[in-house]
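Researcher: I'd like a structural prediction for the single chain below. Treat it as a standalone chain; there are no partners to consider.
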Amino acid sequence: MSTAALAANRLAPHRSPEPAVAPVTTPVPVTAPRRRPRIDGATDSLPVRACSGEALGRHATPTRQRPEVEPSALRLTRRGRMLLTAVSVLIFGSAIVVLGLRVTGVLEPGPHFTHTVPVQVAPGQTLWSIAQNTNPAEDPATIVEKIADLNKLSSPADITPGETLQIPIAG
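Model: Treating it as a single chain, here is the predicted structure.
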């Protein structure tokens, strides 16, 4: 025997006996098990969950019929819709910017004039013919407008024969 067992045996007569306490138990009501109803002639058990009326021989009448919807070929996720929106905004935004710059004349600034030349107006000459003679490679309408601005003319018809005008030359 071990030393601990010997010591326990020597102390056993000197210990006070502990009172035995009975465990407290609550009475459990006894109920009879639930019985399932039996159907005469049925050998298999009744379904407990997800029992449909058709399994029992009943047919449900639909209260509302939904139209058959054909599934679409393309289904977009939230990320796909956001990407499609962003791309379309960029395309339409850039188109508006390009059209706006074109209307204001920034994209097509016109000819660049390097210097001016004095020209004396001959009888029967117009600003249009002067513009065509001095700048044949450029648009005459732009040149006529620039001549009128340089010479402070209110209209192209304000010229007289013998008058000297400053004509811009595109370089």
